[in-house]
Model the fold of this input.
Amino acid sequence: MKTSNNTQKMALAGELLRGVELEPSDLARLALEAVEGLGELARGKPRGELVALLRRVIHAGTVAIEAAEQTVTLAEAAWASVAARGDLRPASRRDLRHFVRRILRVEGAAELPLRGMNAAQCRRILEEAFGGSRSSFVKGRVILHSIFAYGIRREWCDGNPVARIEVPVVKEKPIAPLTLAEVNRLQKVCERKPYRAMRFSLHLMLYCGIRPAEVQRLQRDDVFWEDKLVLIRPQVSKTGGGRAVPLRGMQQFRREECMIPRNWLRRWHELRQAAGFTHWVPDVCRHTFASYHAAHFRNLPVLQLEMGHRDCSLLRSRYMMPTRSREAARFWEDAETFA
Done:
């Protein structure tokens, strides 16, 4: 009778396993492993309770595996992370999209499942996309890191492999300030009628240290004539932090001249060309302001505030070039007569 029951159970097990590439002995081994893994939770339980416990284990494992397998490709995660950055200015968004495209152009990168990527794959992508420039590599690493950080928030991956990639040291080359002769060339061009609308903008860059992109975004009510201040609001500032900058040498400007003309980028480019500059270093006017300010006023904390820096370290390492005090005095004297 017992043999008959066992035969019936084996036949039922075989029927239940039809279409599944498992033998009853396989299930027995798996059940034994599960019971041993549960330890005290399973030891001594009646058959019914033990079967219910094993069902819970199977369900929990199924849910965990489904979650682990749920992911998106690197391309899907990258563009979703870009779309989530609605706070970016148009220029910053274009820059971000440019770097994302360079990352995804690496062969095979776009289709990689985000959850399965490792540090070695991420390093290969960065080296192929940005290996020619150390500074671009650093920026590309920041962007790839942000893609994984967004993926973690969306539960598309569990970790950030980019965090295990070392950050290369970028040695910034100091930028030499414009000479007094070069400053004079720019000012002379502004005396011509086609370029007079750019005089105020040039003054803000040379004698206030305001970045070109910040100048371009200034509004008329950002200039406080009575207080001799220009306010760089957070939404205008490159770093997102506001600052108030003194307007030096404004005696000969009329209020109606203190405006930012339309088509500013084109006008700024044409002004430099008219002054004979075939090669232009970005932000060189800001570096000129910092070098001559430090040499003449000798007050780094004040310069730091006017530049909008958190501390003086960047001023010392990148912005300040040795400048003779006599030349610095001439620079600030010219600010009074530039009109």
